[in-house]
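Onboarding guide, step 5: your first structure request.
Type a short instruction followed by the sequence, for example:

Predict the 3D structure of this protein.
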Amino acid sequence: MSTTVWTVQGMTCAHCVAAVTEEVSGIPGVSDVDVDLESGQVTVTAESDPTTAAVAAAVDEAGYTLVTA
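The system replies with structure tokens like these:
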């Protein structure tokens, strides 16, 4: 198992957290998603690190933006 932390912009409420959690949880291999609304950090635990593209697509589907360096 590996854990990766991502930052998401645009979340403002519990509904946002639920939407991001649902979409990111749908990425194959993901076993746990923890969203911190205040910081915008999304901690993803998976069998192997999901690609940035996969996480970005899931976050976009939820209606938010993945912050990438």
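Each response can be followed by summary notes, for example: Strands lie at 2-9, 30-36, 41-46, 65-67.
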